[in-house]
Amino acid sequence: MTGVASIFRSIAMIGSAITFLVALANPIHAAEPHRGGSLVYAYLSGPGTLDPHVASSLVELEVIHHIFEPLVAIDGNYNARPVLASKIDTNADATVFTFTLRKGVKFHNGKEMNSADVLASFERYRRVSPNASVLADVDGFEAPDPYSFVIRLKKANAVFIDVLKSPVYPFEILPAEQKDKAAREIDIVGTGPFLLGEWVKDSHLVIKRFDGYVPDDSAPGPDGLAGRRTAYLDQVRYNFVPEANARVAALQTGNADVIGDVPRDLAKRFEGQANITTQQIFPYCMQVFVVNTQAALTSNPLIRQAIEAVVNVEDITGAMGQISRPGHSLVYASSPYYQGDAMKPYYDQRNPAKAKALLKQAGYNGEKIVLQTNSNYPNFRDAILVLSEQMKDAGMNVAVDIVDWTTNASNMQRGTGVWNVSTTGYCSNPLLGPQQWKVMIYTFPHVKDDQVLDAAYDKFYASLDPKQRVAAWAEIEKRVLDQAYMIKIADMGTMRSFNAAKVANFEPYYIVHFWDVWLK
Question: In this model, does residue 22 exceed pLDDT 70?
């Protein structure tokens, strides 16, 4: 759920072998695409902001990626692909990146986008974004002519373009006149295929087709968040429907055409309804336990490793009630960074005897270990409740603290409150790779002064040879799991349903999108 949101149901990596869709009804062949019509999407929640530079929740990002565009974005396999850039040149030591911009691209206000807008957007990002630390090594930005933008780094970063492709806290380009606007106070004006229409907080939001949109003609068609994208629909109405039963009912009664976040048990209601298709989206998010390295007791790696040793994944995922797959790695098998079975020893150990031995070695004497969770997300709560019983079986004194999600998420991110273990889901981070994982790996367990981890990440960024980066990631992943900074639970999926008799070409993807979708 969040990583702040990425964390969140909250957003990508790699590999053409990724399977996105399992259709639970017979597919219906789409007619030829045509313009027109309004589609209704029953949506989990309203966005808190549409300012892309500070947005991390999927309920924000799903809208934002229709309205704004970046220089580069993730394609269908979560690799970096140019969007507003037509070409990217990198110097030999990966310290200078030159972007040639596409000409003729229009903002929703009719103004042509140029390098002044790109420069202003990056400068604003560095000022307001919670993710601004990824630009810490930038020595300077330059706009030498209207269609060229240059980023100079203080030191080599072989994966800098991959940093810029992130769909979370995206590097979207705003009109230059937005440069000095405070966070969450921009005018919602982008270059995307849709523009913002009506937005009624706590009710609904409408995006409308931007008829002045200039697509990327170099691509044959859409490709993830990139490629040649076409808006066929006149508009999409996002109805904010937090209750899952209400979303399911809306689809069944025709009050919604597409619904998101369908619980596994509720999807059974669609059985026998040939007009409704349900998609299973994998990969989507990874569920983990986060262990607070700065709290009493879990500052001791032996205590952390004892908690890791008791985890029984099947019992935990069974209680969570979501579609999931076992997975021992912090990246997916389709990733070039995947280490095969190397991380299996840390996963699903089901070994209370090992835990007892580690506790004895640590000098544990029955002190209370606090597991914090929240009342808003039952799947998170139930994962923690099952873990508490597994820990008790190994002789640990466990207390469960249930708070609201805002408090729970804030405590994980800031290290506040009294807690030793919590749980959350990371979505875009494992999909996008080691460069996106870094902030989460350090921030949520509150890792400090780990010279092994620091050195491995330094090697990762400085290595121009991909094989050396893979080796560096192996060190990073092993260190995180061996020290039990995070304890992997499973790879989680999500389910979406739509009226296939009405909606054509609604493709499964990590982020819901409505370009190249039309009504039959």
Answer: no
